[in-house]
């Protein structure tokens, strides 16, 4: 069904400093509660498990494709046959790095976190995204997906021209904007817009990375000049012009032509079932609604998540061709009428609750004892490896029992945003926030993974007379 109800947009509305951004906050669209389908707790715990092997296997194959096509391109350089390996190399380098960048930014593909960080830095460089800037912009994209004036990653800003869209297939003007941006950051300058979503404590890292990127590009250009050939640039630099087209083909399926300013990913995001080759190249990001709803689920578990929540989802698209049968006419129309967007049919939702029914909630008004201890629940209500939400006299806490049976407690809301930690993923002594994958050490409250920057407040917890207690005094 198509409707025509949105206010006429201006490109300036999309700036984070715009009046539209202020209005979004006023209207409760910022860091808001989104629709989530119910998922049985034990099923979700299974889906959240990370393993190193699937991502390691896929990444080794990815590098093999990259190096294999690169070496073939080098061997055939100077002949017309070089076009074939470079066409493959360019797509692997500049298009498929997008989904590797994306997944590793969430810290979910690998169980071993340094591997996520290493892949993130490499893929960020390849896809022309400054790793610091985009780590923060992507956190905002997940809080405020396609909320105008709040989401810095809205790809199809209205109005847009078809010519401008066509240029994106060659990564223009993003290519030139990137070099302007790294040059500015290398000089130690940030824009007012960037200050709205990048914490100042990250600026040092941002400037250092920009200088490294510039040094690499300067080295490649110097080498090209030195040997009198563009060959070095065919490997680093030019792939982002000649090989970025597949990133756009995949990327348009995510949100193009769908609603803005809604709090339901089923209305502003698409899930496209792809063939095995595209699923590999895109790292299952075709399951995009599922990813936005549950960003803690690693890419290799998204098909299982899709099966679980299918009854709550709008109809899926069976392949890219089916998706583009809708996307192309929609974009043609939006180009003429920026007010136009599609409303996707969604089944009646049995629950609009923010809590995805994956955590146990216990409420109590009981007064603490003389030493400040408060009963939370019976021992059996908190099994090893579980976390529950405890609401006491208007405050929210998270109470944890690790796999080895130790009890811990902390404030129940993430220090970064509007999310209950009890909906997160507990592994060892680390709790991962369900919203942007921020991580905390539950023993000390220390931040283990951004975007949170403020430590959690922790409390003593114990077993006492068959009860779990926390000390709030
Ligand atoms: S709300 Fe952002 S990491 Fe928790």
Written description of the protein model:
The chain is of the alpha+beta class and 473 residues long. The chain has 2 domains: 2-342, no CATH class; 360-471, Rieske Iron-sulfur Protein, CATH 2.102.10. The protein is built from 19 helices and 16 strands. It has a 5-stranded mixed sheet with strand order 5-7-8-9-14, with no helix packed on it. A 4-stranded antiparallel sheet has the order 10-11-12-13, with no helix packed on it. Strands 6-16-15 form a 3-stranded antiparallel sheet, with no helix packed on it. The longest helix is centred in the middle third of the chain and has 25 residues, at 203-227. The chain is globular. 41% of the residues are buried. It binds FE2/S2 (inorganic) cluster. FE2/S2 (inorganic) cluster is lined by residues 414, 416-417, 419, 433, 435-436, 438, 451-452.
Keywords:
five-stranded mixed beta sheet, globular, binds FE2/S2 (inorganic) cluster, 2 domains, disordered N terminus, 473 residues
Please give a quick description of this structure.
This protein has 473 residues and is an alpha+beta fold. It has 19 helices and 16 strands. Helix 3 packs antiparallel against helix 4.
Shape: globular
Helix amount: 40-55%
DSSP E strands, number: 16
What is the average per-residue confidence, as pLDDT, rounded to a whole number? 93
